[in-house]
Amino acid sequence: MNKCRRQYDQTARALNEEGFATLFVDLYGTGDSDGHFSAATWETWISDVSSALEWGVRQGFEVDSLIATRLGCALAADSLRQSE
Predict the structure, then answer these.
(1) Has residue 2 got a pLDDT over 80?
(2) Which long-range contacts (CB under 8 A, 24 or more apart) does 21-24 make?
C-alpha cells in the first residue's frame, strides 16, 4: 500500500500540473478513514466511491475517470456500473 500511495501522489501531482483535479478516496476501514477493515463491506466501499463522485460533481467538476490498483479496479468498475 505504501508504494502505491506514493505512486498515486506523484500521478495526482502530474495530473494537477496539467489542469486536472484529483481526489484520493480513503475507503471505510482503510487508511485514516473511520471504522475497522474487518467491518468493511463491498457495498460500503461502493457507497464511498459514489459519495466521492457526487461530491466532485457538486464542486463543479466533470468526473470522467477513476484510477485504481488491484482490487480497486474491480471496485471502480462496479461503482461506475452502479452509478449509470
Answers:
(1) no
(2) 21/56, 21/61, 23/52, 23/55, 23/56
